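FOLDING PROBLEM:
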Amino acid sequence: MPKIFWSSVAAKSRGSDVDDKALWLAELRETAGPKELIRRWKMLDVTEKSPQPLAELFEYGPLDGTHADAYVSAVGTGEPRELAESSGRFWTPGLLGAAWSEVLALRGAALEVALARDDGTSGRLVGCLSGEMHHARQDSGRYGSVFNGIVNAARLSLDNCVGSRSIGRVLLIDLDGDCAGGTASLIDGDSRIRLVDVAVSDRDAYSPTKNANLKIVADASCYLDVVRQALAGVPAEQYAGQLCIYSAGVDGAESAARGLPGLTAAILAERDRLVFSWCLKHRIRTAFLLGGGETSGAFPRESLVALHRQTIDIAGQLVTAK
């Protein structure tokens, strides 16, 4: 199995699936493989409404450059309330800690694989149980995303890998059901980061840019072909030994609230095999997260967990095969 990082902090702000599903998946750790491969990543837990948590946040690793200080402050203090709740999550004193813990989990996974040695002692697939992060903008949250951990993890990897393990390029593969408009806005003009975005919903859509390409699929029978074409358009040789962050969302599944009819578990499984195999073939170090996915009457907890667990299992199969 690949190494998995997960957040031990769950937000109590609204009982969000974005927060809870990491814990639901972590409950499966006894059957996910050897215990030592599932790492509990200790997170910052903010419970006080005071300036101190913000100081601790920036001490742990700044979000400046990804998010404006005024927005981070609002998430920490609750003021102004409209900005603090711009993600759609109700503000509580624990919101900052919960959102930050998800960012830390992805940052940990990205650095783990980015700094891995090339002597075969460390795999090239590392995952985390963080949820949807791709909608947050520099100065606000959106659609449940408080912080954009994807962009923050990419920039951290670019800035902190040195010598023979340096990372000069990061490829973002976003296959959530929704579009990654927040991510596209944050990386606009940064030639070091490239976004490949295939969605099935036009929520958070944007106009393609030099380093962000968006395709919206309306027919499930074409979905895998569009993903293949998107990968074929990437100059893979430029990313050998570099980093890919893959958001394997399941909110496009046919039973999900904004899902695409006919987009079955089997198609999503083939999608994950396709992406992981492509990354391994081209020797691209890959950190994956379990992007979008929320429960509903037609898409219960068991279905959500099964699809996310499917992604983890496929990654494990491919790592074992290597």
Notes: Residues 8-19, 29-60 have pLDDT under 50 and may be disordered. The two ends are 11 Å apart (CA to CA). The chain has one domain: 3-42+101-321.
